[in-house]
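Justification of resources, computational component.

The compute hours requested in this renewal are based largely on the per-chain cost of generating structure records like the one below. Each record pairs the submitted sequence with a full structure-token output. That output is archived, and it is also reused by downstream analysis tasks.
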Amino acid sequence: MGTIINDDFLLQSEHARRLYNDFAKDEPIIDYHCHLPPDQLGNDHRFENLTQIWLYGDHYKWRAMRTMGVDEKYITGGASDEEKFMWWAKTVPMTVRNPLFHWTHLELNRYFGIDEYLNESSAKKIYEMCNEKLATADFSARGIPKMMNVRVICTTDDPTDDLSYHQKLKADSYEVKVYPTFRPDNILRIDDRDFFLSYISKLSQASGIEISSVKNLIDALRKRVDYFESAGCKLSDHGLNYIDAVDFDDSVVCKALDKALNGNPVSIEEANQYKSYILNQLGKMYHEKGWTQQFHLGAIRNNNQRLLDTLGADVGVDSIGDFSHAVAMSKFFNRLDQENSLAKTIVYNLNPADNEIFATMMGNFQDGTVAGKMQFGSGWWFLDQKDGMEKQINALSNMGILSQFVGMLTDSRSFLSYPRHEYFRRTLCNLLGNDMTNGELPIDYDWIGSIVKNICYANAEKYFGFEI
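The structure output for this chain reads:
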């Protein structure tokens, strides 16, 4: 008996199946936001075994294994790769109704042709079969995206990065276009004294500008924006609790930076004004470049101090936050819009209770210059599963224009995550197909199918303006 991953997976009607198979299935992938390591792409890294490509750095799986009572030794500790995989295999059967259950078997099938459930009994055979394929050239870091019909990959990069691996990929004429994304979160950490001073030093070195004033800082950031643009960058990204958008006074911002550069603490008010000012200045730079700015909002990160102290950040102890977003978002966008400096924008929400807030906020600042200029982004992190995707699509449909949506992304550190695009496309086609079945949409495949194709690929190609 095979797994649930068959031709009809997630497609509950004939209309859904036709929309997927005729209009979505074969569309290429633009993965415009991910966390794939540029060095692995640049060096065409080869993975020794399934654990390395599948479990290293995957905090989704780590959370599930801890919940099942697996000792940390077999998750992030010193156990062998094979031992870690075997403990993951024991965990998988217990993940039913968690998206990990679907993702696991979708990835095993699409990459390795395995139509068998992963469990303790099948683990050794599956591990050996996958390792055998991983030893072939098709499964290298550069081979996998080509296998999955990926046209564009946008990595996530700090302003101080030298982008040498992006340059190498371009020099090697790699068939998949790999572009950097400007992620300047660290420059906002003015209330973290030791880190901030160290980071200012790195930014000074990378930009060649000694940072001793706000003007120097803005000049340094602008120089790095120019450098990223020269490497093909067309997006920025910010991972924030919420957008800082308080009123700011230049003298207060200068005072805050002076204090920080001298190793002195800044007040909460000074820090908030500094962050709001920097985000405003960066927003203007993005607009000048024609970039798209992204905001990932609402996570509470690194909740477990014990694991933070022993393992570091980003190890699977993050959760959905309950921040207030509407007023600050409105103020931030309005300030830029009044100066005709509001860039194309995608905002991603982590708390499903806020979906309608985000969807309606985007509609306030559409200006007719670009179709779908302000985007309510796809479900991400805890919401990049069937229920989360459906809620995001429904909120966007009800409060905005779904047909202009730029679609899905992986937001992943794993080269095996590309089937998440398929997962999204099946979910999208199922919703529209059910509407057709229920008489809520016309049974017109050319019409509805063209919208599906656009959401899967064409909208993103046009919106971002990548050289493909």
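The radius of gyration is 23 Å. The longest strand covers residues 235-240.
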